[in-house]
Design goal:
Low-confidence stretches: none
Strand content: 5-15%
Number of helices: 2
Radius of gyration: 16 Å
Shape: elongated
C-alpha cells in the first residue's frame, strides 16, 4: 500500500468534522476518516435543524442572513443542494 502524507487527519464526517476539514483545505492537506458508509450518518443526519431567516432576535436573524452566502458557496462547490424547502409552523 502506498503511503499518504497529510497535514491534518479529521476523525468523523459529521457537521463538525466536515466543517473543520472544509476550512483547513485551502491551507493544508486534509483527510477525513468516517466509519459509516456516508458522511453525516448519525446525529448530523438526523438533525431537525431548520434554516429560518425570519426567526429569532435581530442578532440571530442577522447571523442567519450572513450565513446564506456560505450555504450557496458550499452548494456550488459540492454541486448539490444543501438546503431544501420544507413547510412548518412556528
Amino acid at each position: 500500500m502506498d503511503k499518504l502524507s497529510v497535514d491534518v487527519l479529521v476523525i468523523g464526517g459529521g457537521i463538525a468534522g466536515a466543517s473543520v476539514a472544509a476550512n483547513l483545505t485551502s491551507k493544508t492537506k486534509v483527510v477525513v476518516v468516517e466509519a459509516e458508509e456516508h458522511p453525516g450518518f448519525h446525529s448530523t443526519g438526523r438533525s431537525v435543524a431548520v434554516y429560518a431567516p425570519m426567526y429569532g432576535s435581530k442578532v440571530i436573524r442577522d447571523i442567519t442572513a450572513m450565513s446564506s452566502p456560505l450555504f450557496k458557496k458550499a452548494e456550488d462547490e459540492l454541486s448539490q443542494a444543501i438546503l431544501s424547502q420544507r413547510g412548518f409552523l412556528l
